[in-house]
Amino acid sequence: MSEDTHSELYAELAAAGPYGVRPGHALITMVEPHPGHEYAYNRWYEDDHYYAGAMAMPWMYAGRRWVATRELQLLRYPEKSAVAQPVTAGCYLSTYWITAGRYADHMKWTVAINKRLNRDARVHHARTHVFTAFQDHETTVYRDGAAGPRDFHALDHPYAGLVLEVIDTESPQQRTELLQWLHTRHLPRRLAGSPSALVTVFRPTPLPGDRMTYVKQVEGVTTRLTLLWFLETDPRECWQEHFCGLDEQVADAGLGRVELVAPFIPTVPGTDTYVAELRGTE
Known about the structure:
Blueprint: H1 3-14, E1 23-33, H2 38-55, E2 60-67, H3 70-73, E3 92-99, H4 103-119, E4 127-142, E5 161-168, H5 172-191, E6 196-204, E7 224-231, H6 235-242, H7 246-252, E8 257-266
Antiparallel strand pairs: 1-3, 1-4, 2-3, 2-8, 4-6, 5-7, 5-8, 6-7
């Protein structure tokens, strides 16, 4: 196929279909580099994969990397987690927004490009995917109503921290009830007067059958919700007051079980800041 033909195809694709700014979908991926490979993993991801394996792809329009130092890892709960075993596993988190209505288009490209990256030896295999899933957006709850950055700004706005929360329910019906409770009652109360500016809520979608073999199939497709809390302060400064006890509140409402509450801070792109702080003893 000639270069001119390729260019014409791009013009045709751009002329049809949704092209809004709402984050209709997300890729949320929490990864643990293997011991001894922390620096190599960080440089590979920041220098190559963040761009070639994510941001350069069609319809993935915003991204940000986050890191959990050992100090932050030790704040996580519950100790027995269905997401991370041990609960401290997964010291890097990457979050990406995908244009609403473009998930299928993006997936065709991402599967193809990752096959090419593997073939070209541009994939760092000394890592474990602890929690990796494409997700569909369900709702966003704001602390300040119409004021402040929107969810489509969230990965570009200089937030000081992020908390990943994963909740499992017993059935699709219970997940629907949980979502309603989160949207109308729980999240507005927790956000009021807090350092969290907004919370986005997603539900996972299954990965395609031709995904990379090192990424396991998504769990909880019909029963799980994923929450991202965007913070204006370092999570260590507000953890005790604002993030302890989230599991108890969900349990008391009888709407599911919190399987992970994990704080992160932003990475400093182009540097190895925080890499030396990933390991330690409890």
